[in-house]
Specification:
heterotrimer, A alpha/beta, B alpha+beta, C mainly beta, B: alpha+beta, Aminopeptidase, eight-stranded mixed sheet, 7 helices, globular, C: OB fold (Dihydrolipoamide Acetyltransferase, E2P), 2 domains, 8 strands
Amino acid sequence: MAPRIGIVGIGHCRFGNSSDYDLVDVIAYSANDALEDAGGLALRKEVDQVFVGNMAAGMFNHQTAVASALISRMDMEPCPAELIENGPASGASAIRMGYMAIASGMADVVLVAAGEIMRTVSGWEATNIVATMAHTEAEYNMGLTLPGFAGMFTRLYMQKYGLTERDLALVAVKDHANAALNKYAHVQIPVTIEAIADGPEANVVNNYVAEPLRMYSTCPITDGSAAVILVNMDSPKAKLFKKKPIRIAGIASATDTHCVHNRKDPLVLDAVRLSAEKAYKMAGIGPADISVAELHDAFVIFELLNSEEVGFFERGKSFLGVRNHETEIGGRIPINTSGGLKAKGHPVGATGVSQVVELVRQLRGEAEEGRQVKDPKYGMAVNFGGFGNNVVTTILAKD
Amino acid sequence: MAIDELEKKLRPPERGLPPYPAKMIKLASGEIMVVREARREDIGALLGTVYPLIEVAKDYYDIVAARMYNELLAWYRYRIANEFAIVGAIDGEIAGIVTSRDVDGKLGMSLHTMTIKRGLRVGAQLFAAKMEHHIEYCKEDEVWIVAESPIGFKRWMIEYELEDRSAQYPAVRHELGGVPTFALTRKLWDAVKAVKCTGTRPVPPEILKTADKLKMPNEYVQLPGWKRNG
Amino acid sequence: MIDFSQYGEQTPHIHAFRCQKCGAIYYPAPMICAKCDSKRDPVTGSGWEEFDLEGPCTLLTWTRVWNLPEGFNRKFLMFGMVAFPNGLKASGRIELEGDPGRDPEIGMALAAKVMEADERPGKPVKVYVFS
């Protein structure tokens, strides 16, 4: 029988512009934070395995073999360490590898640390680097980027289901309101629906990025890191950690076609649905049991689509739930209480771990006043790799 | 006030530019930014706002602040011809400043754009206001533009589709010197103004009044830990 | 024997692939046929036939991107996904005649042609232009 695996330490830095700092230092910062949260830096000697999540350090920072570098930076030799690269799902994939290491019996304590520093380059270059996850000949060479895919996707959804630009703006307003209360968020400025959608100046204040997506429908370019410590809750080592573990009840992954145009149905995110189904099954619960969710929203349309694929809303109806305030804190299913990638920020390799850190904070009752969900029991995180072609879903439980 | 003869010699001739009519813009945060032309009595607040940023090397704040300080002081002391400054203020606190000048009634020379309050595209709005003044109110045919920040400049170059005049150097040479000059013509402005330039006029008196006496920011995101009042 | 046709001006083409064992068609090229498990050898190409994928197509969705990546020094580019009559789909750029601000319409008939583009460093690449 697989052991129970839980999170006993979390670390997170303020997301924003860390381009003056060394990437490995930034990742180590959150790793140290997680160790201290777990009981102290000396606990690093109890770690059996390190996984590091990062997407593009080779391009952004001229640094490869990041996991090896982190080990030395943290005085953790000879601990085994591997870099996990799964595009923007690197973080959640690293957690999944950590889970599998413990479940396999090869480790009892795993440190998962993830980070990205993107603002070493211009916005155009960052967009270009992130676009390399697309199919080289059929997509990247065409000049297509992630915003371009998201724009096409959003247009189709609008045509089929009646979503409006204002609905996208409503999601952004919610995300910014949440991020304004989150000490780790990149953008801590609330925005108003009048300013970004309804008002006479909205067209300029909230300009198009990839029509019909506007600036406030897309995430900023962000630097940052996050870390978690996983433990085999049934091992003697579990007693070393001071905080009650938040259990990983379900974790699963699925893939879809690389080329976006080859999806069976362009509006269906099979990988999200399949990974969520597997995670629900593993956890023994369903969508109605989820108290709080962090759904990958590099573009606001993803929050809506993901919420449908994981079963919070019927297909094509999620934006109606937004209009009814169902996804706000205090609503039926609070989504992206951290501010989401939209306002908290999206340091691509770190995002998956950051989402899980947020869930742990919520489940522990440690979120800031005003954005703490009342008495949450289960949290779900969906972390996208590529344009939804490699997705990891994680479900956490407060036992 | 009588100006002595020597002082008169040192002052450049002034064309007497038309005023820039104030407008207000609702920023994404919902805050209202009043955009108005700076007046002589604003100079203390303007200089005091710019000065601390001379220390900030990141994002080219140091050179922009140093040069803008010079431009504002020169404007105040009548040592630069036909300059204007436009300021954006939120509840009276300066959020951004732009400086520019008219050369000969047909040509404008864009000087500097400085964002004080970051994260709300204040700089983009004020740059557009500056271009609006040059072309719509001063009726110039084109404006020459350069920038210190390569990223900021590239953004303008692409978003406004500025004409590259660098091949005409030195006949076409921006006053700030040493850099390739790009031009925003009336035609280029007309093509983008709907998506670049916004604002509501006239500004209701009670809102305009908030920007009557400009205030210097007490803190700057660009200067962590710094406070004006100790 | 030298293949002299490799010299001179070449018209760029983008190829789709047909599995000669079962007839299934693909774009872009797979390494395994999903229908009959035939393997594709990218060196010899044996068992697979390449054919030009261009000509009439239908627009499935589109966008106008204002924040282009490094190397694309222009204000915006339009992109779209299209479906060919043979069922294959592709992504590429859209260039419509007349007003550059004119919006395409989902479902409109377009023609796909292949051009060379060199916005990025390195060798020029082949891109679809749907017009």
